[in-house]
Amino acid sequence: MEEAFKSYLKENFENSIEIANILNDEKMTTLLTVENYQNDGKDFAESKEYITNTKATLEDCKNKYTEFLTEEKAMSYINDKGLDSYYIDLYKNELVGDMSSASQDTTVQDSINEVIEILNTSEEVLNLLSENQESWEIDGENIVFDSENLSNQYNELINSL
Fold this sequence. Notes:
Blueprint: H1 2-23, H2 26-30, H3 34-40, H4 45-68, H5 71-76, H6 85-96, H7 100-104, H8 107-131, E1 136-139, E2 142-145, H9 148-160
Antiparallel strand pairs: 1-2
Helix pairs in contact: 1-4, 4-8, 8-9
């Protein structure tokens, strides 16, 4: 019983650590910097691949996180151990407890969704820049556009962040 619960906690913890590592990844905060524009522009292949992979990983982690908050998932760690009903009930009642309130807490899922939205907008910015490669350049610490329309589109996306 103890081994089953430890396995459940370990896998849940590993998933949470993976989420935290992604959310704390410095690369995410530098995607829309002049330095990144210079290093990865003008097609932004590396940045776009990073965004795609990060979004996919976050979605996977979010799904796992939600799954870990279900009684079914918690019980799956003990169901195949061949224990008698006393230990299964003890595991369910004392260690797993009532997961209905935990599964309704959407704070982590909401935070992940917010980060995915930021990544989506970052991808839109990079797509705008890569589709208009000849219409912008870096001047010192600033990005300068050939047209006001393109500048407005860029600023609108940046401001939405």
